[in-house]
Design goal:
Blueprint lengths: L1 E2 L9 H15 L5 H8 L4 H12 L12 H11 L6 H9 L9 E4 L3 H10 L11 E3 L11 H10 L7 E4 L2 H9 L3 E5 L6 H4 L4 E4 L5 H15 L4
Parallel strand pairs: 1-2, 1-4, 2-3, 4-5, 5-6
């Protein structure tokens, strides 16, 4: 099981949208909240920067985002929580006697940021340090498949045996490109219509995930050994 972090494990996207609005206004351009959700949620820093530069009509310094990192940090320390129901899901997946499911995190965010967010949301215990993967580990972040393929290779699992839990259009696109089954969580900011597509199960209640996995993947896993 490959989990995205922001919006899937930690309820950070709502906080990020507010901070993003402050940042773009400070830079001298305007994005509506709907545009921020569509263009920025789940994107890499490169995509984020390119969208702002296009709106501004000028390039930004290479390290421009560092000046605003404290805004995200302050918001997360004050308000970040785990996504409702995800701790129950992780407990069910990782504590099954004799059938625990290997889990990892694969996020477009920086590795230190992923770890910090998991700590703030009290989810660190579910993920070994070597099971946390960042877009910095690969040439291209989501929506390219590189990050998910890297995570699968590192975990020793073939791509076709992986399931990806995502909440962004960029993420489900990356999962499909990697040849993995996608489960699109629409209980956050991204509407179901932007997650729906081939090889994707869309759901709005995180607590329903274990049953969805059994329903959509269980039969395939039972059949595979006899093929």
């Amino acid at each position: 099981m490959i989990f995205d972090c922001d919006g899937v494990l930690v309820d950070s996207e709502r906080l990020c949208v507010k901070v993003d609005a402050l940042i773009v206004a400070d830079l001298g351009c305007v994005f509506s909240e709907a545009e921020i959700i569509e263009k920025f949620v789940g994107s890499s820093a490169e995509v984020y920067t390119a969208a702002i530069e296009e709106r501004l009509g000028r390039p930004l310094p290479k390290d421009w985002l560092q000046a605003y990192e404290h805004l995200y940090e302050a918001a997360f320390v004050a308000q970040l929580t785990a996504v409702d129901g995800v701790e129950e899901v992780l407990t069910r997946l990782t504590h099954r006697a004799g059938s625990a499911v290997p889990v990892c995190v694969a996020s477009n965010g920086p590795r230190d940021g992923i770890r910090k967010n998991l700590e703030l949301a009290s989810l660190t215990r579910y993920f070994e340090p070597q099971a946390i993967f960042s877009a910095a580990d690969v040439p291209r972040g989501k929506p390219a498949p590189d990050l998910f393929l890297h995570a699968a290779r590192s975990m020793g699992v073939p791509p076709e045996r992986c399931a990806v839990i995502e909440d962004s259009a960029y993420g489900v696109r990356a999962a499909r490109a990697a040849g993995m089954r996608a489960f699109g969580y629409c209980g956050g900011l991204t509407p179901a219509s932007r997650l729906a597509g081939p090889g994707t199960v869309v759901f709005d209640d995180m607590r329903a995930l274990p049953d969805l996995l059994s329903r959509h993947l269980g039969g395939e896993r039972r059949r595979r050994p006899s093929q």
